[in-house]
Amino acid sequence: MDFRFTEEQEAFRQEFTSWLEQTLHEVREGDTPRSFESMVEWGEAARDFQKRLFEAGYAARHYPEEYGGQGRPTEEELIVSETMAAMCPEYRHPLVVTLGLVSPTILTCGTEEQKKKYLPKILDGTHVWCQGFSEPNAGSDIVNVSTRAVKKGDHFVLNGQKVWTSFAQMADYAVMVVRTNPDVPKHKGLSYLLMDMKAPGVEVRPIIQITGDQEFNEIFMDDVKVPIDMLVGEEGQGWMIAITTLMFERAMGDAMIANTQLKGIENMFAVAREVKRSGRPVIEDPRFRQELAQAWIETMVLKCHGYRNISQLLEGGVPGPEGSIGKLLWSETGQRTNEAVMHLQGPLSQVMKGSPWSVDEGRWQHSFLRSKGYTIEAGTSEIQRNIIGERVLGLPKDASRAQRA
Ligand SMILES: Cc1cc2nc3c(=O)[nH]c(=O)nc-3n(C[C@H](O)[C@H](O)[C@H](O)COP(=O)(O)OP(=O)(O)OC[C@H]3O[C@@H](n4cnc5c(N)ncnc54)[C@H](O)[C@@H]3O)c2cc1C
């Protein structure tokens, strides 16, 4: 594997970086990353940024032209995503479900009409999507989904509840896993639907997280009509298509997340120079130096793992169960890095944003609290270890699940 860019790719990287620097200067009205008052305001800023990317010809350049892309090599999309992850992750975050999960699933499993109708509006920033998989009784075990979809003429009628749905309060559409047949083995009775979030009967209630943000939500569906042409694949294929979505969720972002984390580690070094213990900067203390070095090493492992995934994807096909390795790496490294910054801040780690004594304006306190969700979202660490054990290493199924199956 050779991770170096070709001359042409390097020229493209420089061209995109100059465009990004100039555009960020305009939208940030200066050089400081923006913070947002609410998730909805954050979502609007991300849509606006996506529109700018699209108009400048940098949105999903590797997608076919008929779906809004430019048919360019995937490496160019990688360059765009990596550069944005390092320079402005805030403009990608509210679109992470839309661009990272929904659009590749529609591209891989959708009908021709679905691809032509939905993909261009995703790429140009018009539509934000959310992912309605989890329910109060279905998380790790997605086969327990009980939201019911009953076919009536040319549409399905949906009743049920989803939970932990990130970005639902700003979403125009959702991808939904629903039960269309309760009389067959559980995983064969699920179907995968696209749902208009503005349809009558859809109610979204935001949930306040430990950070104080309202990133995720409950969705209640009361006799919601979904036209039959919004079914992805065949009826009964929902489980298989949901697994495809989850594999994209677990495999695609590793190299990008590594770039965002490396930026965080640069800032962690700055904090270690600023904070003093017994009159000396903590960066001089061997215990903290170990933690700083460890954070950097683990993030570089993640980055190399991400490149390995991308090399495999460039050779064709959709991501496989190896995506679980990257999910474990980014989530657990991310948590350890945040914990390390709390250690090195010492008593100052208790001082939150808004206080004159907060370190780095309390950025790391917010990030530390948010990192608690890393090992739950996109599948818990225990589930990733089960997948790696069973599907990558070929170990026997875990006893509790083997009995239930
Ligand atoms: C920040 C955040 C954003 C999220 N966004 C979304 C979203 O947009 N859309 C969406 O659909 N969902 C979303 N989720 C939900 C997430 O996918 C689920 O929380 C996750 O899959 C776990 O499901 P659960 O909460 O029901 O826990 P459970 O599945 O009930 O698990 C509880 C505990 O049991 C363990 N466990 C379960 N089964 C096994 C097993 N077989 N072996 C070993 N241990 C096991 C788990 O690891 C966990 O520790 C989000 C969650 C978070 C934290």
From TrEMBL:
<dbReference type="InterPro" id="IPR036250">
    <property type="entry name" value="AcylCo_DH-like_C"/>
</dbReference>
<dbReference type="Pfam" id="PF02771">
    <property type="entry name" value="Acyl-CoA_dh_N"/>
</dbReference>
<dbReference type="Pfam" id="PF02770">
    <property type="entry name" value="Acyl-CoA_dh_M"/>
</dbReference>
<dbReference type="InterPro" id="IPR037069">
    <property type="entry name" value="AcylCoA_DH/ox_N_sf"/>
</dbReference>
<dbReference type="GO" id="GO:0005886">
    <property type="term" value="C:plasma membrane"/>
</dbReference>
<protein>
    <submittedName>
        <fullName>Acyl-CoA dehydrogenase family protein</fullName>
    </submittedName>
</protein>
<dbReference type="InterPro" id="IPR009075">
    <property type="entry name" value="AcylCo_DH/oxidase_C"/>
</dbReference>
<dbReference type="InterPro" id="IPR009100">
    <property type="entry name" value="AcylCoA_DH/oxidase_NM_dom_sf"/>
</dbReference>
<dbReference type="InterPro" id="IPR052161">
    <property type="entry name" value="Mycobact_Acyl-CoA_DH"/>
</dbReference>
<dbReference type="InterPro" id="IPR006091">
    <property type="entry name" value="Acyl-CoA_Oxase/DH_mid-dom"/>
</dbReference>
<dbReference type="InterPro" id="IPR046373">
    <property type="entry name" value="Acyl-CoA_Oxase/DH_mid-dom_sf"/>
</dbReference>
<keyword id="KW-0285">Flavoprotein</keyword>
<comment type="similarity">
    <text>Belongs to the acyl-CoA dehydrogenase family.</text>
</comment>
<dbReference type="InterPro" id="IPR013786">
    <property type="entry name" value="AcylCoA_DH/ox_N"/>
</dbReference>
<feature type="domain" description="Acyl-CoA dehydrogenase/oxidase C-terminal">
    <location>
        <begin position="236"/>
        <end position="393"/>
    </location>
</feature>
<dbReference type="GO" id="GO:0050660">
    <property type="term" value="F:flavin adenine dinucleotide binding"/>
</dbReference>
<feature type="domain" description="Acyl-CoA oxidase/dehydrogenase middle">
    <location>
        <begin position="130"/>
        <end position="224"/>
    </location>
</feature>
<feature type="domain" description="Acyl-CoA dehydrogenase/oxidase N-terminal">
    <location>
        <begin position="6"/>
        <end position="125"/>
    </location>
</feature>
<keyword id="KW-0560">Oxidoreductase</keyword>
<dbReference type="Pfam" id="PF00441">
    <property type="entry name" value="Acyl-CoA_dh_1"/>
</dbReference>
<keyword id="KW-0274">FAD</keyword>
<dbReference type="GO" id="GO:0016627">
    <property type="term" value="F:oxidoreductase activity, acting on the CH-CH group of donors"/>
</dbReference>
